[in-house]
Input
Amino acid sequence: MIPFDAQKTSFKRIRFLQCFIGILFLILACAIFYRQGIQFYRFNKLGNQQCLRRILRPGIRGTIYDCKGRVLATHRNCYCLYVDLNGFRNSFAAFCKKNKDKATQQEQLWALVYDELLSYAKQIGSVPFQVSPQKLLQHYQQNLLLPLKISQDLPQDLYAELLNRLPYNSPFQVSVEYVRHYPYGSAACHVIGYVTQTTDLETAHLPGNDLRTFFLPSEQGQNGIEKQYDAYLSGRNGGEIWRVTPSGKKQEQILEIPSINGQDLTLSLDIELQKVCENAMEGMKGSVSIVDIATGGVLAMVSRPGFNLNELTPVLPQQTFEEINARGAWLNRAIQGLYPPGSTFKVVGMSAGLRAHLFDPQTMYTCTGIYSIDSLRMRCHNRNGHGSIHPMEAITVSCNPFFIHYGLQLGVQGLHDESIRYQLHQPTGIDLPYETKRACIPSPQWKREKLKDGWALGDTANMSIGQGYLLVTPFRMACFAAAVAQNRTVFQPHLACIPQPPYKAPQALPPDQWEFLKKGMTQVGARYISFLPTALKTGTAQVKVAHSNSYTHIGWMIGFAPVDHPQIAFCIQIEQQGTGDEFWGGRTCAPIAKEFLSHCLRKGILQR
Output
């Protein structure tokens, strides 16, 4: 018989064992709670990442119209052939187990797909196969969830034949893809811009940012209106979330958020007027800008040379890029080109002189054909001089000595301040990307900082006739002409016809001085335009050719019409081809002005 004390000791051991086991169960329970409760979201997230996939689908891009509702940018049907590489998984996976060489795998996959496609080609004729072995294998390894486009721009009859013959379970399928299309080709190319395909889609508003994501290509604006209003035209991306098998095959759709198509956009541009200007500039380098004075809308903005927008989308070929670059055609000369304004700047000098009361309509000045400043002799274009002239005649005949004489009296500060008053130093704010901010209205301080040199009287003389260090864009001069037409200091332009905040710039000159300035420009207009009262100022600026001792010229014409109730303002700027002497702004630009002014009258854009 076991002693009582021994039994008592045995119960203590049992209780210890029970406590020990209880503690183990408690630890186990805590571990289960930690794993199943606290770490639930982590493991759930890992599970989703393992078995869920997200596919992003862009919306259809909006259409761009001109002011008369004519389509400037839209989409065309592009018939495409796709392959689902899942259909070749079994045979290709077996091959890859025995062959690890990447080049061999590429050739095998390409052969599998090509041989399968060949069976259909034997029935209906040749079928394009526009994909490389490298592309096939890359898509198989990285984007198996999405079909791969193996040919595009199929003829419509071939598309219809494939549509009829391909069975529903075939790895090959045909579909219609929307490709950006520009009905007018090269017309207004710098304004409209172009798009290229991208997989850089906005995803912040969509769930599943932590999932592996596949993209269907979207269109992204690269220049012009297409870039400026990219978000407006693009709409909103949609997406799908799918549960997939371990091998990556679609199993079940978990979520679908439809994409939202982009909004349409109407421009102030008149494509017919644009084409008239472009045809008038055939073979030339330069720009034409025309604005509607009442609304601020840009009616035409031409930059030549240009390019065909349809050659740049959906993909910009490197060869095409280099060819356009070699011609200097990427540059939108209207808003990116910087040139000395020549005699068109004399309108600024006249405005400054009237404001400072340096002369009045009765003031007389004698032009001898030469103006001397110390050892510097500056000539008038009339080598014999204009004789005794008053200010209105001076602006009509564009007399250099007159403007140099009073420009020196104004001083560089007076000319500089008047230029700043008309904001010639600022970008216009037009709703286009890449407008230059490097316009130059020089001053003594600017010259000290940039050129480490002091200001000379010759610099002021050059500035007074629109030469020297002055640099402005042609479109800024069109806006300056529009401001003068309204007797305002600033004109605010725009291209998109969307609500604009009201804006009215300060008055530029007292009414009597403004009428005097306008009358002088009207007399210039009468020399070039006979069928419509037009206020003009012409100019010819001299520019040194880089890395040589020769000079070329820039021809200018700014103006507005009709004189009594201005409706449009414009600037024409033409670059001389070569370095010959026979080049004058008025002579070069007048035929272009006549072309588009005649068109404006015929089409009712202008009312007499």
